[in-house]
Prior knowledge:
Layout: H1 8-14, H2 41-48, H3 63-76, E1 80-84, H4 87-98, E2 104-108, H5 113-126, E3 129-133, H6 139-143, E4 149-155, H7 167-176, E5 180-184, E6 202-206, E7 220-224, H8 226-239, H9 245-255, H10 258-278, E8 282-286, H11 296-302, E9 309-314, H12 317-325, E10 332-333, E11 343-345, H13 347-350, H14 357-363, E12 369-373, H15 379-390
Amino acid sequence: MEKKDLGHSTKCVHIGGRADKAYGSLVTPIYQTTTFEIPSMADFIDINVNGRKAYQYSSGSNPTQRAAEEKIAALEGGEDCLVFSGGMAAITSTISAYVKKGDEVLAQNDLYSTTNRFFNTLNEKFGVKTRFFDTTDVGVAEKLVNENTKMIYIETPTNPAMRLLDIGHAVEIAKKHDLVSILDNTFASPLNQRPLELGVNLVVESSTKYLSGHQHVVSGAVVGSTKRMQEIKGYRSLYGQSLDPFGAFLLITGMQTLALRIERANSNALALAKMLERHPKVQKVNYPGLESHPQHDLAKKQMTGFGGMLSFDVNGGVDGVIKFIDSLEIVKLATSLGGVDTILTTPYTAYSRSLPQERMDVMGITPGLIRVSVGIEDYVDLEQDFTKALGHV
Ligand SMILES: *Cc1c(COP(=O)(O)O)cnc(C)c1O
């Protein structure tokens, strides 16, 4: 059986170099070493002069890290993968590999806020300009293309408004104008959306979130062709963004249950979204799986599941948010997303010092907005916790 023909649950469990030749350990060993002994000068010459592949220094590559990379590559349907010490590490290395002074980038205007900050930094410090367009109207991006444009960088669904970007349309523009296309797949995860199959060149993601899934490791990944991974790898070393072996181990074991976790998170999120939509204390629910989502048809077209992320507007603005959140018992107030626990945050207060009001407006952040990362608990318990807390609003 070809590895690429396996089902996603099977890939989660089985892909990625688990063969421990020394003792047959079923679990991928943690190769907690910085360096590797080279048996002889003949080998040393073969590796360094003739380019034979071998592990030499863990900042460059390590067998535990490699196992994580093989699993993520298989799940995203790409040739190869590199893992990093964080999602932002994957994003900054990947972008750095494809732009130089004078180049321009196209990107949507409501990107993950730190990525947006990176594009602004690139402009101010390194002379790489980004032209921003509206997420829901990617056709506009084509009007911004000029002879310096090299890249289109996108993200869907967005944080925290849960807007979608038409991936197929973005790919069409990228191909027509010979741009490298990069998509941040953090919110959907490869179980709900596989952008490489839709023609995107590179997928980046924060594996701190769904892939590892237990809020126990900060890490990131990029997936694409072998050639592109070689192009990006030098930047991972340059910036010192390699993932340590223990982090890679946590990522691997986390991913083994990814398919099951996503299945539960998807169904919990849909049920919760429907409940919230009917609730008198809730003004608006943003979830791609709801018929009321303005891009529900696009979600059905480009996603294989609607995901575990949703946001909603509670009555009463910040005051309503305070009353609601402080009345919750099971669901916790915590940043991040994609783990087994249902956690939530309120972007308006979270970003109060870092985002000016005009950025809040662009990103769809209202005072009453609550972003929920729905976990894998029993749905009835979540519904009870939400309903009870909404009663205090
Ligand atoms: C968290 C996140 C990142 C950054 O990842 P880190 O692992 O925190 O560095 C990038 N993009 C999205 C959409 C995220 O949610």
